[in-house]
């Protein structure tokens, strides 16, 4: 396999939403026998929790679904991520604004698609994935993230099939 489709999920703290998406996406890709075709990562735009493992609420949801988050630690999104990823998936509009600023200030053009996670679930009519760091509703995060990751894998499978 010469090139894996690379996806990076970006949120604010990289301890709640984007690590959940990374872990769910990887798990689901393996379930669909797409583990060799895709690569998932996550990062944050804020630096408060650098080096920390996912939030307890995210860990609880992943544990109850039997999904691994082994080795995952909070880190900042960087130029390399934005240049190398095929899909840059931001969790809300503030993340999108921050990522666009980073791209602009770096003066480069990302090769991949920059999209909002909720673009994958248009029927929900939601702008962003609500932040469970504030709402406390990590179950909602898991529901949205699971549905959206499934759609993203559908899209990637389709692209690979017609490439
Ligand atoms: P996340 O949630 O962006 O989904 O990881 C947050 C985590 C931490 C903070 C905000 C949001 N914080 O302000 O520390």
UniProtKB/TrEMBL annotation:
<dbReference type="InterPro" id="IPR017867">
    <property type="entry name" value="Tyr_phospatase_low_mol_wt"/>
</dbReference>
<keyword id="KW-0904">Protein phosphatase</keyword>
<comment type="similarity">
    <text>Belongs to the low molecular weight phosphotyrosine protein phosphatase family.</text>
</comment>
<dbReference type="Pfam" id="PF01451">
    <property type="entry name" value="LMWPc"/>
</dbReference>
<dbReference type="InterPro" id="IPR023485">
    <property type="entry name" value="Ptyr_pPase"/>
</dbReference>
<feature type="active site" description="Proton donor">
    <location>
        <position position="131"/>
    </location>
</feature>
<dbReference type="InterPro" id="IPR036196">
    <property type="entry name" value="Ptyr_pPase_sf"/>
</dbReference>
<dbReference type="InterPro" id="IPR050438">
    <property type="entry name" value="LMW_PTPase"/>
</dbReference>
<feature type="domain" description="Phosphotyrosine protein phosphatase I">
    <location>
        <begin position="5"/>
        <end position="155"/>
    </location>
</feature>
<keyword id="KW-0378">Hydrolase</keyword>
<feature type="active site">
    <location>
        <position position="17"/>
    </location>
</feature>
<feature type="active site" description="Nucleophile">
    <location>
        <position position="11"/>
    </location>
</feature>
<protein>
    <recommendedName>
        <fullName>protein-tyrosine-phosphatase</fullName>
        <ecNumber>3.1.3.48</ecNumber>
    </recommendedName>
</protein>
<dbReference type="GO" id="GO:0004725">
    <property type="term" value="F:protein tyrosine phosphatase activity"/>
</dbReference>
């Amino acid at each position: 396999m010469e090139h894996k489709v690379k996806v990076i999920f970006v949120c604010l703290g990289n301890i709640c939403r984007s690590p959940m998406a990374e872990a769910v996406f990887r798990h689901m890709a393996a379930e669909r026998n797409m583990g060799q075709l895709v690569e998932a990562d996550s990062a944050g735009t804020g630096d408060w929790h650098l080096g920390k493992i996912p939030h307890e609420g995210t860990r609880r949801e992943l544990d109850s679904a039997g999904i691994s988050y082994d080795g995952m630690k909070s880190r900042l999104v960087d130029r390399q991520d934005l240049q190398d990823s095929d899909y840059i998936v931001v969790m809300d509009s503030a993340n999108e604004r921050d990522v666009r600023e980073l791209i602009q200030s770096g003066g480069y053009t990302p090769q991949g698609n920059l999209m909002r996670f909720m673009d994958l679930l248009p029927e929900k009519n939601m702008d962003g994935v609500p932040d469970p760091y504030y709402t406390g509703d990590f179950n909602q995060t898991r529901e949205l993230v699971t549905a959206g990751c499934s759609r993203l894998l559908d899209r990637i499978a389709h692209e690979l099939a017609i490439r």
